[in-house]
Amino acid sequence: MEMQFSEKVAQSDTERQLREQLDHAVTDFRNLQKEVNVNSRKRLQATQQLHENEMVQNELALVDQDDDETGVYKLVGPCLVKQDIAEARANVAKRLEFIQNEVSRSDAAIASAEQKMTAAEGEITKLQQRVAKAKQIAAAAAQ
């Protein structure tokens, strides 16, 4: 009788530890999902900015460099300030480069988090199987 009680306590401790590990793995998985969502939103925003700046670049390509009557204006606060066409093109090119780097960075972060999520899914599955097995053993010992 003494032996059965200690075995039951050990089994319940093992099951409790497995459940704690499972809860921790599920929490990690949810955090990874949140990370993917945040990085996806950042990527979407950067992609929208990229398209906007590509349109600006295309419009600037239509402006003749030597035409003094055509002006390019930049909004600075509440004022429109005339800007040199070459300077405007250079600024847009730098912005495009920066935004493309942001998109790449977001893609890498998403891929990394998804890879970690796949590993976490495998860990969760293993832990669920171990919990189920511990329950079966406990049920068999109870009979």
Automatic annotation (TrEMBL):
UniProtKB keywords: Chaperone, Coiled coil
Domain of life: Eukaryota
GO BP: chaperone-mediated protein complex assembly; protein folding; response to cold
Cited CDD domains: Prefoldin_6
InterPro entries documented for this protein: PFD_beta-like (IPR002777), Prefoldin (IPR009053)
GO MF annotations, alphabetized: protein-folding chaperone binding; unfolded protein binding
Positions in coiled-coil regions: 96-137
Entry's Gene Ontology cellular component terms: cytoplasm; prefoldin complex
Any Pfam family hit: Prefoldin_2
Family: Belongs to the prefoldin subunit beta family.
Protein name, per record: Prefoldin subunit 6
Organism for this UniProt entry: Pycnococcus provasolii
